[in-house]
């Protein structure tokens, strides 16, 4: 039985009425492009939360026929999607990760792109489902979103296999989310159609199928779920692919490494936990006067990016520190740069030496940031040292008498820092009166001076982007996301 052989139909054909208040415009336009190119594709699993996926709140699980791969990737590149690289512990065969951006909402869309029907089972074992061609014959159009999705009977069989595979791979339990998803799908299944699909896939129809479905739908029987999933899964044992022994060793290593990092992460330095940008990492700095909103904006940008991209926070102000995935990292020199009485006393004793220690620490931080960039991660810098303006904006402090040894060494240190500066600098431009309103406890004259001098800072070879930070914060955040996406 074939419900839909060509999923490339228009929205009017599907009768879908898209909810513009929820579904991102980017996902709507991506769907339209794929249909226009007559691609064979579908949102193949997790369709109970398809709406959330198109809102940018969870992954879009898209299956693309291998013959359409080049066309599909051309569409993604034309739409400025960024190709991602998974960490080795999360890599799957036949799967790619692409990240898109919705300019209206500022949300990221993660395409978990499959070119094969595969799922992980056991330690470094993968189950390849030999159902691809038949799967594409069992599609329908989702009436709410217009996306091609498998009919309930086909999606149920895929979910049953995934449930048993995940139990072997992870823990011998079925997550509540999957239980509810299976229950919902089975409530839509027609028995005769289910038997026809099983026949088309050369599967034996499970014994007592009607009773099993009734126990799951009516009584939420978890044992029935486990039994039914096992009956389907064990018919596919010939399709299990075992990875290399080295892959198993890597899995073992990463499993216990992550457990270790949860307890000791703040002492080990930044560790890559999320996906990285295949095109390369970036060091990105946000600078501006007091009251421009640097720290608030940095925190929200970090939260936005770490949805999927490996991103770390570097603070380059008077009390420099690094934060990675919520951990404020330990530093043996941290006691020099805090507001405790001991630190204040040391700074008083150190005099000019303190400022040399401060820029030296920032140089070491920048070296670490550059290593993360080389590993294709992102580093967001709150403030950034510069040498054009003396005395403030994290610039040189010891240049009142330029002939002293301290002044010469400080200039040398700042030159060393600026030679390997940021890739992108966002200048948060804000009128002095607005900045003063936001920071009433600060010196108004100093704020005015900072606002006036910001435009005169060059930041070397970095791409400099001016942001009008005097507007309402939500507008500033959205524009920053848009500009940042353009330079990634």
UniProtKB/TrEMBL annotation:
InterPro entries tied to this protein: P-loop_NTPase (IPR027417)
Top-rank taxon of the source lineage equals: Bacteria
**What is this protein identified as?**
Thymidylate kinase-like domain-containing protein
Q: Which organism is it from?
A: Niastella vici
